[in-house]
Amino acid sequence: MDFTFSEEQEAVRTLASEVFTSKAGIDRVKEVERSDERIDRDLWRELATTGLLGIALPEDLGGGGLGLAELYVLLEQQGRHVAPVPIWPVTAAALAVAEFGTDAQRAALVPGVADGSEFLTVGLEEFGPYTDAPRTTATETDGRWTLTGAKAVVPITHVAHRAIVSAATETGAALFVVDLAAEGVSIEQTQSTDWTICGNVTLESAPAELLGPADGTTAQWLVDRVELALAAIQIGVGSGAVEQAVTYLNGRHQFGRPLATFQAVGHQLADCYIDLQAMSVTLWQATQNLADGADPGTSVLVAKWWATDGGQRVVHRTTHLHGGMGVDTDYPVHRHLLWGKQIGATLGGSASDLARLGAQLAAGVEVAG
User: Fold this and answer.
1) In terms of domains, do 16 and 84 share one?
2) Does pTM surpass 0.90?
3) Which of 222, 219, 247 is nearest to 318 (CA)?
4) Tens-place pLDDT, residues 2-58
5) Are 150 and 104 in the same domain?
6) CATH of the domain at 225
7) Residue 48 belongs to what domain range?
8) What gap in Å lies between CA 74 and CA 77, rounded to an integer?
9) Among candidates 162, 155, 165, which has minimal Cα distance to 189?
10) Which ranges of the chain would DSSP assign to H, the alpha helix?
């Protein structure tokens, strides 16, 4: 496969880099972290105005009409700057509505995401070990659906109006649109490892709208795209951490020469480079499979595992290379550590990824046999 970026993808990367560089400097990030919302509304509006926010959404719904690759290019740039805006949950939810929603659902929910006026979110995780099969259940009575269960660490529940939630039906896992202000929905607001606000959502016969067929395909469709979105951000987080480490090590001297010239330091950075390259190759291979409409096979989980496992190694190494400065919670590289740890735990850690990958491989062997 040729993973060279197209002219359009290069343009997206350049524009995204300019926007994040100008709007998400470290002083601005600190200011947003101290705010009640912890979302940079100014940056959010800029992303909407430049068309980046809706880059992968359909043109007839106000989006840019491009694809997943362009969205992941944007997310990688966000990760480099650890910019406090909820691009991945909002756009992932909108992509699911655009793909599976009725005309009414699409018209009501997607254009507001593209222009930055609407916050959607996704609820895919539950309490306990992550599994592909949701424990939240959906029940249909006289054509109306209700959900019962709980969703953990749902992003931006303090500003999102609706969530796209996975739940089990008699015919397979499905996606549902849930009004977070509806009767039967209760939210316990909390914060994640990277200091962003999220919520634990309890559903007690909460009303919901079915999104697409209830046959197990839609939920996995969304999980695949969210896992790759997280992988793209993690590449940016790791790359940004390495850049900071290189600057720091070239400027810090011991025994009369820069720390960057020490062999042990070079080995650590070389390991970071290898991990980042593996993360990048596996991400773009899986993205190409999804873009082509091909069966992704194990490619998404492989990319997810590299982002989870390799990404954690990168942010830990770069923190260690900063010495005492790296553990200072006010020092810029510490944010990369927290983002890396949060991403590495979302939708299951590396052990969970390997367990799911093993189950997928075993299932393939049984079918072949």
Assistant:
1) yes
2) yes
3) 247
4) 678 999 999 999 999 999 999 999 999 999 999 999 999 999 999 999 999 999 999
5) no
6) 1.20.140.10
7) 7-117
8) 5
9) 155
10) 7-23, 26-33, 41-49, 68-81, 87-100, 103-114, 217-251, 263-291, 299-305, 311-321, 332-345, 350-368
